[in-house]
């Protein structure tokens, strides 16, 4: 499946459905799936992703961010989840993302969300 692909950009397409866990297992540099109608949770296996830019904003994001996200500290520079109806939590490990230069969680509230996170080291 497209072994040379490094940059996936399918944003602003009104796509619906689930996002397969396998997407986050690909050796991609950047994933842009924002502004669609996806409903998904981030898989535990995301910590194996070499992605530097992850933009999943304006979708229906469910569950908690995996705490293994901290394993992406050496590669992840941009994490944009704004307006994603996040129904779970952000783990304290998000503060360990030492190379993160952009973190946008603006308007991540579906009316039920209460962020539970210590952003201490940001």
Instruction: Report the major sheet.
Output: 5 strands, parallel
Query: Low-confidence spans: pLDDT under 50, at least 5 residues?
Result: none
Q: How many H/I helical runs?
A: 0
SS-derived structural category: mainly beta
What shape does the CA trace take?
Answer: globular
Pattern of helices and strands: EEEEEEEE
Q: Compute the number of strand runs.
A: 8
Keywords: Repeat, Secreted, Signal
Subcellular location: Secreted
InterPro entries: Leu-rich_rpt, LRR_dom_sf, LRR_extensin-like_regulator
What does this structure look like?
The chain has strands spanning 7-9, 16-17, 30-32, 37-41, 53-55, 60-62, 78-80, 102-104. The protein has one domain (7-104): Ribonuclease Inhibitor (Leucine-rich repeat, LRR (right-handed beta-alpha superhelix)). The chain has a five-stranded parallel sheet with strand order 1-3-5-7-8, with no helix packed on it. A three-stranded parallel sheet has the order 2-4-6, with no helix packed on it. The protein has 122 residues and is mainly β. The model has no long low-confidence stretch (mean pLDDT 87).
């Amino acid at each position: 499946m497209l072994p040379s692909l490094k940059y996936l950009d399918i944003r602003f397409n009104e796509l619906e459905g689930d996002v397969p866990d396998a997407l986050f297992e690909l050796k991609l540099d950047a994933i842009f799936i924002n502004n669609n109608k996806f409903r998904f949770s981030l898989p535990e296996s995301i910590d194996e992703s070499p992605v530097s830019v992850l933009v999943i904003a304006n979708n229906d994001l469910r569950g908690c961010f995996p705490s293994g996200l901290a394993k992406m500290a050496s590669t992840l520079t941009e994490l944009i989840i704004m307006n994603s109806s996040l129904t779970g939590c952000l783990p304290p490990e998000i503060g360990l993302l030492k190379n993160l230069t952009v973190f946008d969680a603006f308007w991540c509230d579906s009316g039920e969300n209460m962020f539970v996170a210590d952003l201490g080291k940001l």
